[in-house]
Amino acid sequence: MTKEYNLTIDGQKIIAQEGTSILDAALENDIFIPHLCHHPDLKPEGACRLCGVEIDGGRMVMSCLSTVGEGIDVKTDSSEIRQARTIAMELLIADHHMDCLACAAANDCALLDISAYLGIQPDRLERLRPSDKGLPIDESNPFFQFDPNKCVVCGICVRTCNEIVGLGALGFINRGFKTVIGTFGNKPFTESICESCGECVVRCPVGALAPKTPKFAAREVQTTCVYCGVGCGIYLGVAGDKIVNVRADRERPTNEGSLCVKGRYGFNFINHPDRLTKPLIKKDGEFVEAEWDEALELIASKFVQSKGDKFAALASAKCTNEENYLIQKFTRAVMETNTVDHCARL
Amino acid sequence: MTNSIAEIDNAGTLFVIGANTTNAHPVIGQRMRRASQNGAKLIVANPKEIDLVRAADYFIQHRPGSDTVLLMGMCRYIIEEGLHDQEFIADHCENFEDFQESLDAYTPEFVEEITGVPWEQVAIVARTFATNKPSAIFYAMGITQHTHGTDNVMAVANLALITGQIGKPSTGVNPLRGQNNVQGACDMGGLPNVYPGYQNVTIPENKAKFEKIWGGELSAEIGLTHTEIFDAIYDGEITALYLVGENPLLTEANAKHVREALEKLDFFVVQDLFISETAQYADVILPAASFAEKNGTFTNTERRVQRVRAALSPQGESKPDWWITSQIAQKMGEPGFDFSQPSEIMEEIASLTPIYGGISYERIEEVGLQWPCRDADDPGTQYLHKGKFARPNGKGQFVPLEYKKSAEIADDEYPLILTTDRSLYHYHSATMTRRVAGLEELDSNEWLKLSPDDAAQFGIEDGEWVEVYSRRGKIKVRAQVTDICPTGVCSMTFHFHESPTNEITNPALDPVAKIPETKVTAVRVEKI
Predict the structure, then answer these.
(1) Where do the DSSP E strands lie in chain A?
(2) Global pTM?
(3) Option in B33, B188, B288 nearest A328 (CB)
């Protein structure tokens, strides 16, 4: 059994497991502590300096890097804490390209949430604001873009690519104020080892890494990815009669929230204009649209004459279990042959 | 897979042979790289320096077609050094003595000569696999698509048996199944020799069981396999073909032969989302609903039966494949196809398929269930062969193996070996992925990848168009000079109809599995 500790956060009595960070313990108990570089999937970094708290009235510690202990008394707010956070936050935002209405992170932006919490004053920001960085936006990847002017250098993307994807396509480039996130040699994403999986994009707390596809769907449907045999759990985002995005299912043991480029972004074939929408019958060498009844009657009349060794069926590794079951049942029970196979060997 | 995907996290050693996981099973590839970072030893054996090698502790670059020799060499070293699991072998296996004798042929000199791998490297990965447990083996079509593919799989199993690395968490023999539901298509009896749940068609009791439920008399004769079907069509024996959601003109070895066969059919029905290269030859094309427009289940590579749910109405007048097949049967006046929804079909599957006996839609709502799942109380099976093997006496059988050459080897006329591969950005014949503009942008054409040495020898510049000849034909493709290919080996995917790789691959079959040898084709490359 993991040890449990009793502690107090802002006067609230809390029980937390040994090894839990103070930040996680607070968040799990619906106590907000501002944080930008923390992500539940990643190891703590302590880079943004926003999650400072006071323990037992002593000095300020970063709550993401400090673990819970028996009987400790945590304060998440005081004038000293607020001052330290405000300075850290103002410096972060002063350097941030503000374009909120047009930003992909519009109503899901950690910077806006924290600014509101701290009451950041726009006029003070203008005084601090350096000249516009004017860095070029990397639009090389067809599925997402990277705007370094919006980046707060929290490093979540770098850690995601290291810790989740295991790839390490991203890193910090330059030092101090000039620090940016980039690929090896700061080349466009598509000229790097990036595999376009989008794991960094879904974790970006601001609008720096942003999908080019619409972010919001009217409804979601839980299902299973259609591409490879891993069988990742996904949610298809639907708007009207179109699939507009895909999100990973974090509860599915197969992928636990991860996806690849095909699973996350490869859905536009579904609504593609090339989709067949009517049965086609070849007449004089040309395909002619037909009604279902005509097509089915024709097939039934031909298949009736083709039973036994004259018939073969190829089932499909793309179709469902139920469909494959019916195809082999049809072949065996109706067409009187066991010649049914599929592309398992290819 | 005998084991589960999540067990990768806790493996001591991951041995990945003949699988390009970061391209073909990317999320498993991610998990392997994470495991490697967290301390697992990652061994990659592949003729090419695939991306996963960057995360590997050991890279074995053996020659195409030499897998059995490499694996038997590892077995020999493990036994010579006394690193085998003698207790496991004694308690759970049989035929060890015959197997051990067969290892005499795999001397270090012989293994080095055939694989091109120094014996010291074979030894260190063998030692790592045998000692840094739990150890798991992962393979894909680099192991199976050979005329001796069955031997390769047996060799993999031998390695797992001598080290006792099966039937426990984070061990196992783990074939990575390629397509979303290739596991399910096999489970459902989409194979010429078995009914659903691998119940052999030649066993009278099985036949009687299905006859009773389905009605009518069933054939006791094993049918033809994929590649054999096209031979029989070519020879005029099969005259009607019902093809659902496949594109063999791009995916079957020696595709020219497939095309010539399709032209001979009297009646050819295709069900698909698009007019594929293959569908051009159809007499009737039926519009199928996509996975986003229908309900059902897929079974993944770890045997997990998972739900597929409709998010949209079918496009136009397209229909789910289950509906179409049912309608054809009903039009023919046949009973047993009167289903109103897929859950009813699953009920029939569960009633006839012991390994799916406990599967129902209610039970698989959230995360699915892994077969065998025999009844409503069975929680499913995380890993296979726990305590005993699925053979009548419960014992794992060692198989002595002799080295067999590939059907084609490099010679003066065809001096290079072509091996096939997959792109991260495309899927099989790419009817879906090439209709996703972003994926097409990221990877828009075929490349013949070949080594700098070979490029220099044949006077080929990076990026230029070349012709690739095999004994079956030629194709045009652009060359990419890269050191991921060793000298003498070149590689192509098979996603692009403009450069249809399978026009030239070798359709020679493994005698047991009937799988074509698309991983070893002798070719010649010429400037245009």
Answers:
(1) 4-9, 12-17, 52-55, 60-62, 73-75, 144-146, 170-173, 180-183, 209-211, 219-224, 233-239, 242-248, 280-283, 286-289, 311-314, 340-341
(2) 0.95
(3) B188
